[in-house]
Amino acid sequence: MYRRLPHGPNGMSREDVARNQRARMYGGMIEAVHERGYPHTTVAHVIALAGVSRRAFYEQFANKEACFLATYDIVVARARKLVLDAWTRERGWANRLHGACKALLEDFAEQPKGPRLVLVDSLGIGPKARERMTLASTTFERVVTMAFQADPSGAEISPLTVRAIVAGIRHVAFTRMYEHREEELHTLTDELLDWIESYRSPVARRLTVSGLVKPDLVEPEPAAFLASDDRRSRALGALVHLTLDERYSELSDPQIAQFAGISTEGFHKLFPDKEACFLAVLDEFVAEAMEAVKSSIERASSWPEAVHLAVGALVEYFASHEALSRLAFIEIFDVGPGMIGRMTRSIEAFTILLDELGPEARRGPLVTREAITGAIWGIVSAYSAHDRVRQLPHLVDQLTFLVLAPYVGAKSAMETVEATRRSLPSDY
């Protein structure tokens, strides 16, 4: 499939030959994973597609995972270069932003195999792939920051908003890659830029760290669905404890059953396997969080106020259930491809509820709810990865602004945040 070097002397240095072989192995990995998925891809598949020997492979990579991670890095680097090249080709800030976004989305639509490896196929591989995802996000957060620093209007966008933008675009692209609808990305440039534009306002300057509400530290609470002493609750609790202690991939059904004090047969009467048990934990976690959100909304006198109260209730629940938040936002990556569709469910239920109760989005209506889902999920995931979940209540104002601005405008969103601040006790 890939252009190979001619047999015999070719005038190339040893380094050039190695570089050529490495590039072909990257291509072989992309193609093999596209055809079979990562778990079923072998070194033999990669070298057959790349046209290199097994010896040549192991001279450059320790194993299949090392080749996959190097391929991941190359795909990310290529995407970054694509964006920066598109930026420099245009004149005028708005044209540059549009050109860069369009180039990225169109490349995803036209050549989806590499982006799919990064956005979809890397999930479930393990901690090293998860670290790569964090590094890739950081790479593009720097690109977005650079872009907005060049904004001639001087509008400020906070680092949290930058993270939200990158996570939102990633989620929109991920969903279409996962569902094989990548051709839709051709048409979403203007929608995504319109969504981003809703945060580009002079009023956003008032949303500074020094002005944020600083709530008391949230105390840990036991989850209600784990409080019972029945066999199901014990099995769910055993999976949570063992996953956090030993990693999900290392667990077996008998281990979970033994920790829960039940037989393996008894465990299988409750759940077909450990993945079904993990899914049940996630479902209970989402249901309990949403109960807290719905209770908070009942006190609101308007939809914007409901959003603020709902955001507060959601992050407070996450903060008070730190172990479960880590399970839902970090350990979920190790569960495997079967979990991919559930990745953002913990936030999606929240954004669907608010979207159904509120007005139609003014900015980027075709992607707003989806982008906000990805934005919040990305922020909570980042805080979970750095053991900062209990700090999430400090972000209530900024997260409220992120949700409200595309629906009611930046000015009204900021007014809601400030009005809620004024209604709090003076020593809050």
Task: Report on this structure.
The protein has 428 residues and is mainly α. The protein has three domains: 1-61, Orthogonal Bundle (Arc Repressor Mutant, subunit A), CATH 1.10.10; 69-205, Orthogonal Bundle (Tetracycline Repressor, domain 2); 207-423, Tetracycline Repressor, domain 2 (Orthogonal Bundle), CATH 1.10.357.10. It is 66% helix and 0% strand. It has helices spanning 14-36, 43-50, 54-60, 64-89, 93-110, 113-121, 127-149, 159-178, 189-197, 231-246, 253-260, 264-270, 274-297, 303-320, 322-329, 345-357, 368-385, 396-408, 410-423. Helix 4 (64-89) packs parallel to helix 7 and helix 14 (303-320) runs antiparallel to helix 18 (396-408). The mean pLDDT is 90.
Keywords:
428 residues; mainly alpha; Arc Repressor Mutant, subunit A; Tetracycline Repressor, domain 2; 3 domains; flat
Any idea how many domains?
3
CA-CA gap between termini: 64 Å
Q: Mind telling me the C-alpha Rg?
A: 24 Å
- Give the helices and strands as they follow along the chain: HHHHHHHHHHHHHHHHHHH
- Give me the oligomer status: single chain
**What about the largest sheet?**
none
CATH superfamily of the largest domain: Tetracycline Repressor, domain 2
Helix content class: 55-70%
Which fold does the CATH topology of the largest domain refer to? Tetracycline Repressor, domain 2
Can you lay out the helices and strands and say which pair or pack?
Blueprint: H1 14-36, H2 43-50, H3 54-60, H4 64-89, H5 93-110, H6 113-121, H7 127-149, H8 159-178, H9 189-197, H10 231-246, H11 253-260, H12 264-270, H13 274-297, H14 303-320, H15 322-329, H16 345-357, H17 368-385, H18 396-408, H19 410-423
Helix pairs in contact: 1-2, 1-4, 1-6, 4-5, 4-7, 6-8, 7-8, 8-17, 10-11, 10-13, 11-12, 13-14, 13-16, 14-18, 15-17, 16-17, 17-18, 18-19
